[in-house]
Amino acid sequence: MNSYQSRLNHLLNLSAKINERIDYLLLKSNKYSFRRLWIFLAGLILTIILLNFNSAAGLIAAVISLIIFAVTVHFHNRLLQSVRKFSFFKKLQDENIARMKVDWSGIPENINIILPEESSTFKDLDLTGSKSLHRLLDTSVSMEGSGKLAKHISQFSPDVKLINRNQKIVKELSVKKRFRDKLILKARLISLKPLSGSDILKWIKKTEHTTVPDFLIPVSFIFIFTFITLFILYSLGITGNIWFAVFLMYLIFYGKYQKQVSSVFEESALLSDQVRKFSVLIQMIEKYKFDDNGKTSEFLEIFKAENEGASDELKKLERLIAFVRLRENPVYRLIFNLLLPYDFILCKKLLTLISDIEHKLPLWLEKFYELECLISLANFTYLNPDYCFPDFETGNENTFEIKNCGHPLLVRNKKICNDFAFENSGIILITGSNMSGKSTFLKTIGINHCLANAGAPVNADLFRSSVYNLFTCIKVNDSVSDGISYFYAEVKRLKELIDDLNNSKGRKIFFLIDEIFKGTNNKERLTGSREFIKFLSGQKCAGFISTHDLELVNLSQENFNVTNFHFREEIINNEMIFDYKIHPGPCPTTNALKIMKIAGLPV
């Protein structure tokens, strides 16, 4: 049994065992429901009977019955919480099974996130969207973490040092299934909606320049002490009602600075829940024991401190915001501020804490989002144990080799993998029939490049490449609203490639161009394609161009930088059979007329 099937069977068995546990707990829960009912009824009947004979005995029976009922409810609630926890845990395993099978119906929909500025490559390679790489990978619990993942898989200008660091962390996290599951499970248990740290940062930013005069608290204490003392003396008949005048002065003083204080409290009450959730999750990260010599431990060092870690400071913020929420009740607010300058003290403490963490909090949250992203990649690694981590050739600027490379968004039993390699080659010209696999091959190379640049494993037995900037021109769309034709849209896109070549700063560009200039007539397409390919062959770039124009294969005789490969098909019993394998040399067959004839057209 291969490693993938073994991993899949393990998750299926785990899901089945969790389901058995849930069924057992639900059965137990039903028994508790009956017990609660009988305890309540029995206690009520016993209390009524005893009250008729002896009121004291009846009251004792009522108290004992309520205690037994309360204890039963407590244990029943704990049981229901366990059911909820195991249900979430099962859902998590089922999602992982769906990711392994590429079953989109079982993979959660994408969070509504603000994506990085989308280039055509996003659409070309299905990096984001309903059936995309982002959705397949994403296990994030926050909106920002999901957005961070989208940025990670769209690193079209890779940083090898960052890739190597990410690979090490992803490998370490991939064997920490318990940690990954626990973090995601805890996040889902404390919040049905994705977390969002941006609101917290906006509030911090809004209040960071707010100041409260130092004299507010001592002056307020003087007012409060004075009018309370005078009120006591007035109550004893020692003085007149001068206390009321002092009280009014305090109210005027309080009202003068209340607006300034309230601006700090605005929106803070709404953030209490978000702060608490991040605090709980970061505390779990802090307490987890990673290998001290590992890259993950070093990566998470920012959360730890000699005295107080990130979670401790977030708990402080959470507690202060909880006190802010108390003052929303007008009765509490009046009582608190009559006895002590509650608002001023709370505001001062809040501003002091914000001053302490205003520079640290964005770093903590950013690190948390990046950890979420790396956990998504680690989970992908765990679910695909037969995928390999790529090797980048920093010494050779024009190397590319893949073995048994497939498209990660395709179902395994329908996936055809390919081998390919070039050394110091320039342009690979791919010819082939309709539906033979040219476009899928280009997308396969492109999407695996994106995985490699993110520090994730790729769908291959071997993936070795120089460090390239990635460029794609695969899904070109016209625009009726902008008055742009398909052909002009493609011309604009290929002009971007020329601009990128001029601005590449010495790094080679790896391009993937599908059906070059197919939006114009045969004669001009052939001439334009020939000249464009000749231009590329003299530039600092390498890549693949697919075409239906068989005349272009002759370029390999004129230019040693151009090499021909093709996809082919066979027709057996009026049925077209494709092997979806790439072969050296130009395509020896065409199939357009055959397709027309099989479809019943008069050709």
Low-confidence stretches: 479-483
Alpha-beta classification: alpha/beta
Work out the radius of gyration.
34 Å
Number of helices: 21
Specify the helix fraction band: 55-70%
First and last CA, distance: 50 Å
Oligomer kind: single chain
Detailed description of the structure:
The chain is of the alpha/beta class. 59% of the residues lie in helices and 10% in strands. The chain has 21 helices and 12 strands. Strands 6-7-8-4-9-12 form a 6-stranded mixed sheet, sandwiched between helices. Helix 18 links the parallel strand 6 and strand 7. Helix 6 crosses helix 16. The longest helix is centred in the first third of the chain and has 51 residues. The protein is elongated, with a radius of gyration of 34 Å. The two termini are 50 Å apart.
Topology:
Layout: H1 3-53, H2 55-101, H3 120-124, H4 133-137, H5 143-152, H6 160-174, H7 177-190, H8 198-207, H9 216-235, H10 242-265, H11 268-287, H12 295-299, H13 310-326, H14 330-339, H15 342-357, H16 360-383, E1 391-393, E2 399-405, E3 418-423, E4 427-432, H17 438-454, E5 462-466, E6 469-473, H18 486-502, E7 509-513, H19 522-537, E8 541-547, H20 555-558, E9 562-567, E10 569-572, E11 575-578, E12 583-584, H21 592-599
Parallel strand pairs: 1-5, 4-8, 4-9, 6-7, 7-8
Antiparallel strand pairs: 2-3, 2-5, 9-12, 10-11
Helix pairs in contact: 1-2, 2-7, 5-16, 6-16, 7-11, 9-10, 10-15, 11-13, 13-15
Summarize the structure.
With 603 residues, this protein is an alpha/beta fold. The protein has helices at residues 3-53, 55-101, 120-124, 133-137, 143-152, 160-174, 177-190, 198-207, 216-235, 242-265, 268-287, 295-299, 310-326, 330-339, 342-357, 360-383, 438-454, 486-502, 522-537, 555-558, 592-599, and strands at residues 391-393, 399-405, 418-423, 427-432, 462-466, 469-473, 509-513, 541-547, 562-567, 569-572, 575-578, 583-584.
